[in-house]
Every structure is written in C-alpha cells, then in structure tokens.
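User: I'm putting together notes for a lab meeting next week and I want to include a structural view of one of the chains we've been expressing. I don't have a solved structure, so I'd like a prediction I can at least talk through. The sequence is below, exactly as it appears in our construct file.
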Amino acid sequence: MLTIQEAEYELEKGVELNFGPWKMHSISVATNAQLIADRVNGMDSDKAYILGLLHDIGRRAGNKGILHIFDGYDYMMSINQPEIARICLTHSFPINNSDIYFGKYDCTAEQKNFLDQYIEETTYEDYDKLIQLCDAISLPNGACIMEKRLVDVALRHGLPEFTLVKWKAFMELKKYFDGKCGCNIYSLLPNVMENSYDSLI
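Assistant: Thanks for the context. Below is the predicted structure for the 201-residue chain, given as structure tokens.
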C-alpha cells in the first residue's frame, strides 16, 4: 500500500486536476478514520488514514456522479493499489446493493453490471465499513453528527425511495464502531458539536 506521504501526494495531484471541496472532505474522512481506527483492536490507523484520504480520488477526473467511483477504482488499479481501489467502489454502499447511490448514474451499462456484481459479492471488512461511516460524518470542515451530514446530502440530491434504508445502514455502522471503540465515536473526534451547529445553507 502507498505510504501516507505518497497518498497525500496523490491527493494533491488530483486536486490540481480538479480543484474543489472534495479535497477537504477527503482529509476530514481520513482524519476521522485514523482517530477511530486507533481505538479499535486489530486496525491500522495509518492504513485507515490512507484509505480515507483516497476514497474519492476519482474526483481527479472531473465533477461526475457515480462515475467518480469507477475513475478512482481504475486509477488505483493502474498504479497497483487494489486495496484503495476496493474502497473507491465500496465507500458509497453501506449495504450490498449498488442501486442506493445518492446522485447521478452517469456510468455505462457495462460499468453498472460490473458494480452490481462487485458490491453484491463483496464481504465488507472493517476498513470498508469504517470509510463508509466516516464518509457519512465528514464535512469539509471536519466531523459532524451523522444526521447533519445525511441532511446535507439530501439537500443536494433529494430523497430517493431507498433513503431510509441507507440512513439506517449508516446508523448501524455508527453503532458497530461505538461498540468496537467502547465509547461514542463522536467523543473521539474534534469539533463535532461546533460543526453540527453550523447552518447547512
């Protein structure tokens, strides 16, 4: 796997290609994943940081919908980083169903078929689950309570019919890591309440 320095370099290269708030969101996900993983027996906090930092690396290819996960997967595979490539695909799906993406399905039918099979057949490991969780609690300015982040996404993408199923899956992830950490994960993350009180619009 890439080192932290190499991962940070990849993020900076990506932002040079497509500047946007995804940079700070990625850093937020990485920081929160590292802090949580540090409390979980058997997890590598540096690995969690790297996976969080590059989960959205497909954004380097432009402002796209679901296509960004394929761009990230393809790029990471091209530089021989299959673990990061996997996270690029799994981070948006807290349940094994590729039809629950908030946003535009701008991929080809062939890509969607590949994703359907990949997500359905993948057994999620704790790193998949951790990045899914941190993606759901990380604004560009840091961690917030999950409900605020979910509303933030809903304001941008609407409320498709699968919304409640996906929200419940995210909440189950928080409960899972609360148990793994032996505490409420929010207590591990800086400025959660301050970020949660900020207005969304």
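A couple of points you could mention at the meeting. The longest strand covers residues 138-139. The chain has a mean pLDDT of 95.

User: Perfect, that's what I needed.
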